[in-house]
Design goal:
By secondary structure, the chain is α/β, with parallel strands linked by helices. Among the domains are: 142 residues, no CATH class; 230 residues, ATPase, nucleotide binding domain (Nucleotidyltransferase, domain 5), CATH 3.30.420.40. It is built from 20 helices and 22 strands. The longest helix is centred in the C-terminal third of the chain and has 26 residues. It starts with a helix and ends in a 9-residue tail after the last helix.
Length: 559
Amino acid sequence: MTVKDKILQGRTYLGIELGSTRIKAVLIDDSFSVVASGSKQWENHFENGCWTYSLDDIHGGIQACYKDLAENVKAQYGIYPETYGAMGISAMMHGYMAFDKNDKLLVPFRTWRNTMTAQAAGELTKLLGFNIPQRWSIAHLYQAVLNKEAHVPYIAYINTLAGYVHKRLTDRFEVGVGEASGIFPVEGIGYKKEYCEPTEKSLAEKGFDHKLKDILPAVRNAGEKGAVLTEEGAKFLDPEGRLKAGVPVCPPEGDAGTGMVATDSVLKKTGNISAGTSIFAMLVLEKPLNGVYEEIDVVTTPDGSPVAMVHCNNCCSELDAWVNMFGEFAKLTGNEIDKSRLYETLYKNAMTADSSCGGVTAYNCLSGEPVIKLDEGRPMYFRTPDSTLTLGSFFRAQLYSSFTALKIGMDILFDKEQVKAEKITGHGGLFKVSGVASQLMADALSTPVSVMKTAGEGGAWGMAILAAYMELSNGEKLAHFLDKKVFADMEVTTSQPEQTGSAGYKTFLERYKKGLAAEKNASTPALNGTSAMGEATATVAEKHKASVRSTSADTPKQP
């Protein structure tokens, strides 16, 4: 059977992931091979003290991404896709989207990148005896209540970005268990009951008297059926009107969950590192952690197994900025270089530099970084007077910097908790250049790091696999399905740690830690101690009242 026949018969599976810098759609067939893809670049905005994407950006971005996919299918196979065997939505994990009873977004979407919830995260962690990071949805809600933000009295429910898009497509208020584990602590396939009551009580004491089950999305397991693409959802995704309703839609997941799927890392003692705008490592646990660490999230796989997660807000953005600058220089000389070749040239040249970067040190923090206790981002670079500044040493330092905060968090798992990892697999943009990031990371972690040929496909491919799993598994466990069907013949390249590289990185790490004081001192406090977020929400109540007054029974629901 040809790929065209499979598309016509709905034997293909669609995954869409709203990443931090790119929305990507991947279409696979029933052999799990990519048959087409589409994408749309986008960027977050820092507005009124908040990293955000507007609803217009979200809606227009996902529609543009889907259109690009559909056009690519047409160009390759001569037909537009009209249906799929199944589909699914993934997005950057965590964040806060608050809605009223009319499905109106009350404040701009607050992404994982924000570090405005330190008080809430600290109080919740102390209350529950369980680490609640600043990124988690419950921390954002709790902080909004603490701040007495004007939108709080109007909250009917809160959601994540993946959950929001899923609801637009299916009219179901639900998320996969992996995504849910970044909203509120979970146990099994549901929110942990012994934590719900004290959280509800504490919120009620502060004037927010709601049951969490009423305001948080329902929790679903990987492979669980029920949601389908509605007529309204089909028109939302494909305004051209070619896409038909009725496509089964699997539970939405965060990029952490899709990364685990995309790297065959859902079994105990396996792990993965996802490296793009942010970087995070996931290690599937054999047993619960002994301690509570603010550097470590405890989340789950898409089928509910506990996972230790080290999440760092910063990875490739600063590195990409330097690559772009050298690309600009090349263009000025009349030698414009293809972007892929530019990355490959700069990265591989970095491997020729001294393993300690010759005294060069870099910090890649565009935003705050909780792992190193940095409240605000300040990209920075320094070198000693006797350093060896070359193009190679500079870029090697930038590459090291992209995962050094992660290394600091990982050391807690390896050294304090004695967590074992038999296999760590990397994926995401940082790993696209073969043998560079994987080798440097293997040296840094003193652990073999593998990369699959699908490393660059990332979470969108993982989401497509979860959609296929829902339709093709027949009750089979996710780990078995991945191991025996998806990855049985997958090409894998493994980098082993090298002594020279490990020693060089250790020297770099010592300099990095010594320079953190300067990095932190470079942060500028808010003027006059004023909270930009507080100012931004001061008029929400009046605006909301006005919008409610102008809404009639005949007015369609707004997103």
